[in-house]
Amino acid sequence: MAVQEGSEIAITRIFDAPRETVWRAFTDSKLVAKWWGPNGFTNTIQEMDVRPGGTWRFIMHSPEGKDYENRIVYKEIMRPERIVFEHVTGPRFQVTMTLAEEDGKTRLTYRMVFSSTAELERAIKEFHAVEGLNQTMGRLGNQLEAC
């Protein structure tokens, strides 16, 4: 379960999949499009350049038909251990994601640090950020089972 503290939301999950498979789920645009976002959302990936300074642009489509444009800039890529990126469209936050091998499984730690506590509170109120992160990780788990 995702937990909120200060201006941060964090979640740790263990997936029954090799680290390389989890890495690919986050870096292959065709796979990301299948699972990214809360339940019922779909994605149109416009660009996904996974390298420091690279950009990921996509539109999340809600079940109600609302579109959410997103732009992410990658800050750090350490295959297959770590990804750091900044979500530069509102709400603003930085993600640090680490992947650790554990007996053939993968421990994923995903930390979202918002520019301020107020920005985090807005993300929770307007976008249901905590529940959205929980659902997104659930969808990732389903995708990994299908791989």
- Overall 3D shape: globular
Q: What is the first-to-last residue Cα distance?
A: 23 Å
How is the CATH topology named? Alpha-D-Glucose-1,6-Bisphosphate, Chain A, domain 4
Q: Can you tell me the CATH architecture?
A: 2-Layer Sandwich
Major sheet description: 8 strands, antiparallel
Low-confidence stretches: none
Q: How many alpha or pi helices?
A: 4
Question: How many β-strands, per DSSP?
Answer: 8
Give the class-level CATH name.
Answer: Alpha Beta
Strand and helix order: EEHHEEEEEEHH
Q: Strand share of the residues? A: 35-45%
Q: Which structural category do the helix and sheet elements fall into?
A: alpha+beta
Percentage of residues assigned to helices: 25-40%
Tell me the Rg in angstroms: 14 Å
In CATH, the homologous superfamily goes by the name: START domain
Provide the domain count.
Answer: 1
Describe the structure.
With 147 residues, the chain is an alpha+beta fold. The chain has one domain: START domain (Alpha-D-Glucose-1,6-Bisphosphate, Chain A, domain 4). The protein is built from 4 helices and 8 strands; from the N terminus they run ββααββββββαα. The protein has an 8-stranded antiparallel β-sheet with strand order 1-2-8-7-6-5-4-3. It is globular.
Features:
single chain; 147 residues; alpha+beta; Alpha-D-Glucose-1,6-Bisphosphate, Chain A, domain 4; 8 strands
